[in-house]
Design a protein that fits this description.
Length: about 130
């Protein structure tokens, strides 16, 4: 039975938090395709994924060695206006490593480093 149907039977209204939990559980059980299905279900019900959702998806895809899809979702998160954090970068780097996509992993590490430097510069300026 689909997780959404179970939630409806229990009168639980799915939201971004419940979907993020489902995506995370799918990933932990090496079911990356089911994790992606949760994303599709979210879209069909006009529930916008957040950074936690994307991070869990990228992690699930890393476990499935689906680095190309993981990088696509990372770009999608950026397009949605989300600021990628170190956890999500780490999951994306791991996805590239699992697929032996070393150039992608190095590019992400550089990007994460520069975004981390920008964030700390901005917070230092704000504190001054």
């Amino acid at each position: 039975q689909h997780p959404r149907q179970r939630m409806q039977q229990k009168s639980t209204t799915p939201n971004v938090v419940t979907y993020s939990i489902l995506v995370n559980l799918c990933g932990k059980n090496s079911q990356w395709s089911r994790a992606l299905a949760q994303l599709e279900d979210m879209r069909q019900h006009a529930i916008r994924p957040n950074l936690v959702t994307y991070s869990a998806l990228v992690d699930a895809l890393q476990r499935g060695r689906e680095w190309k899809v993981a990088l696509g979702l990372l770009n999608e998160a950026r397009s949605d206006g989300l600021v990628i954090d170190q956890v999500t970068y780490g999951a994306a780097v791991a996805a590239c490593e699992s697929g032996s996509h070393w150039r992608g992993a190095l590019a992400l590490l550089e990007e994460a480093s520069s975004s981390s430097s920008s964030a700390s510069s901005a917070s230092s300026s704000a504190a001054a």
